[in-house]
Design goal:
heterodimer, A: 2 domains, four-stranded antiparallel sheet, 20% strand, B: 184 residues, mainly alpha, Rna Polymerase Sigma Factor, Chain: A, Arc Repressor Mutant, subunit A, globular
């Protein structure tokens, strides 16, 4: 075989994620990047396509018969959306519900139920006049049309005004944490978003450069108090949007 | 089982699953569960945990079926990825050094693709197999082990009694060569 060119750092990271050698922290970073960067997500998917045929060499092992019954029972509890309802909002909820694959998927599912209950039009934010304003609508990573959070950045007040469209009280065991992911791909924590509320979040000066058009905002599901890590979400990313000039 | 169901048939089943057809999910389960269970069991080495994860996998498939895009991935790649991700998440919950002491010998049986598998498999598996075998044996082994067992660089380094940076550069160089070989 001829000598191959080295992979770029980004592609190597994508390939390592597909291979499965990353630590939990790195896996979360990779998932966050996939949510924020379609090009990175495409690289991970291309590597999955390359590597998955390895599984074909595995001898099949039938699971126990009782497992199908267990699966069928757990479908029942989750099959209350009216699957034939193809309205945009029902589709959006389904997309969103499926968007989280992390270890806290159950928490995400219960939050999805909260969103379903929240079935109401997005709150319109009226940003104060003057300055270069930015806004973002945070929807599921598949681009479903239902926003779960909306945010506007006011450079005069140096604050993000964030509205959660999630019904409060449905998942007291978890919180929503907001992150900004600028071009360098590193998530910065912005704070906890209370469900169903509009709040003004003052932004520290060090984060102002990150709050520019094109940066991604993402929301993750975290234990109370927020992510134990300062530099990465530990729970699944549930909604993502890009900041754009108003 | 999987070999008796063509990729096209699986894709048709997926669109019925996306429309909420439980009978289609059952057919998909019958066609794919033995393969996905093998994937989970290989990573977790624990039947009970592998069964729990497999249950989560099919519930995920049911819920995410409308996100499946047949133009971008085959059903088996998509479903295997869910099974691998779920299993690796579960494994990581045991800590970064899970399986640093190997459960069995590093020589893994999955490396040798059986004649039968070669006969029934699509060309892409044969090509991957050929490209992997063109790597130096140590690199091939470490890539296969990483894939099948879902262990971290840290755990691989401990097992091989080799610095983490060295293992990482073997894997990255190996993956680069693999990409080149698969592209030809």
């Amino acid at each position: 075989m001829s000598e191959a060119a080295d992979l770029t750092e980004t592609e190597a990271f994508a390939a390592e994620h597909a291979l499965g050698v990353l630590s939990s922290d790195e896996r979360r970073q990779a998932e966050a990047r996939m949510a924020a960067e379609p090009a990175f997500a495409a690289q991970v998917e291309a590597w999955r396509e390359r590597l998955t045929p390895m599984s074909d060499g595995l001898a099949e092992i039938p699971p126990p018969h009782a497992l199908w019954q267990r699966i069928e029972r757990s479908l029942g509890a989750n099959d209350n959306l009216g699957r034939n309802d193809n309205s945009a909002s029902a589709r959006g909820v389904r997309f969103w519900r499926g968007a989280s694959v992390g270890s806290l998927a159950l928490a995400a599912a219960s939050l999805a139920a909260a969103v379903m209950l929240a079935n109401r039009p997005p709150v319109v934010i009226h940003p104060p006049a003057g300055g270069q304003l930015l806004d973002a609508s945070l929807v599921s990573q598949s681009g479903a049309p239902v926003p779960l959070f909306v945010a506007a950045y006011d450079p005069i007040r140096k604050a993000l005004i964030v509205t959660s469209l999630v019904t409060p009280g449905n998942d007291p065991a978890h919180v929503h944490e907001l992150w900004v992911i600028p071009a360098d791909g590193k998530p910065r924590p912005l704070g906890i978003i209370a469900p169903g509320k509009t709040q003004e979040m003052p932004m520290p000066d060090k984060y102002l450069p990150a709050l520019s058009a094109g940066s991604a905002l993402a929301v993750s599901v975290e234990p109370p108090g927020g992510s134990p890590k300062v530099d990465a979400p530990t729970g699944p990313i549930t909604a993502v949007g890009k900041l754009a000039k108003i | 089982m999987a070999s008796a169901t063509t990729p096209e048939q699986l894709a048709q089943l997926m669109s019925r699953v996306a429309a909420g057809d439980r009978a289609a999910l059952r057919q998909l389960y019958d066609a794919t569960s033995a393969k996905l269970f093998a994937v989970c069991l290989r990573i977790l080495s624990d039947r009970e945990e592998a069964e729990d994860v497999l249950q989560e996998v099919y519930v995920t498939i049911w819920r995410r079926a409308d996100r499946f895009d047949g133009a971008r991935a085959s059903v088996m790649t998509w479903a295997s990825t869910i099974a691998r991700n779920r299993s690796i998440d579960r494994l990581r919950a045991r800590g970064p050094m899970a399986y640093a002491d190997q459960v069995e010998d590093l020589e893994i049986a999955d490396g040798a693709v059986g004649a039968e598998a070669l006969l029934v498999s699509a060309g892409e598996q044969q090509r991957l197999h050929r490209c992997l075998s063109e790597l130096d044996p140590r690199t091939e082994k470490v890539i296969r082990t990483a894939f099948f067992e879902g262990v971290t660089y840290e755990a691989l380094a401990r097992r091989m009694d080799t610095p983490l940076g060295t293992v990482k550069s073997w894997v990255r160089r190996g993956l680069a060569k693999l990409k080149g070989c698969l592209a030809t």
